[in-house]
Design brief:
Blueprint: H1 6-10, H2 14-24, E1 28-29, E2 31-36, E3 42-47, E4 51-55, E5 58-64, H3 72-80, E6 82-87, H4 93-98, H5 109-113, E7 117-118, E8 127-128, E9 134-145, E10 150-161, H6 175-178, E11 181-184, E12 188-191
Antiparallel strand pairs: 1-11, 2-3, 2-6, 4-5, 5-10, 6-9, 7-8, 9-10, 11-12
């Protein structure tokens, strides 16, 4: 069994250490964040750091890496206050991954990576037409995390869209049916398959499959 200490980790080659730490926590969600600037230029970028914070109010956060270089998503969210989360479907993971390239600000990843922007219900930020699950967000606050110099960007869900056949009677969303991809590390994409779903856990009571 492989064994690592913090001291060993910090002395590893940079790329090896990055891959190791990014895959250590397991599978993550894959979302394209759609934004536009005050002049209407659209931007699209893949993120795998979304975090559910609560249902009331309905807040979702994501991690923004240090802004020591240009971060068009960050700038656009601050400029307009709105953005979208769009689930990456297993059928377009390659195009989605390409949005991580450092294109200049004047280039729209929608266009150059082959996605269609769509505006729904007068929401001010662009959605990805090809995504099965689309979420409209409004910026609430950011928290600067000093130890890594990253930002936790917190937003409130304003609206969302998903296929009827992916929504179960109790509100559970069937992500397997929706074709949502998951990510390991920065560049490994997988198709999720449900193993089981269980009843609410209570002390000394047997679980039921639901």
């Amino acid at each position: 069994m492989a064994y690592f200490t913090k001291e060993l980790l910090l002395n590893l080659e940079t790329l090896y250490r990055r891959n190791l730490m990014n895959t250590l926590i397991g599978f993550k969600n894959a979302n394209l964040i759609g934004t536009k600037d005050t002049e209407g230029k659209e931007n699209l970028a893949i993120f795998n750091s979304l975090v559910h914070l609560g249902a009331n109010p309905p807040h979702i956060a994501f991690v923004m890496r240090p802004t020591t270089v240009e971060r068009h998503t960050y700038d656009n969210i601050h400029a307009t206050g709105f953005y979208t989360f769009n689930h990456v479907h297993t059928s377009f993971v390659e195009k989605a991954h390409q949005t991580s390239a450092k294109y200049p600000k004047e280039v729209s990843e929608f266009e150059t990576c082959g996605f269609k922007p769509i505006y729904l219900n007068n929401f001010p930020a662009p959605y990805v037409a090809e995504s099965q699950i689309k979420i409209g967000m409004k910026f609430v606050e950011e928290i600067f995390i000093k130890t890594n110099e990253v930002y936790l960007i917190i937003g409130e869900v304003q609206e969302f869209y998903l296929p009827d056949d992916c929504l179960r009677s109790d509100g559970f969303i069937d992500l397997q049916r929706a074709g949502t991809a998951v990510v390991s590390g920065l560049d490994g994409y997988y198709q999720a398959t449900e193993i089981a779903r269980f009843s609410y856990a209570r002390p000394y009571q047997a679980l039921k499959r639901i």
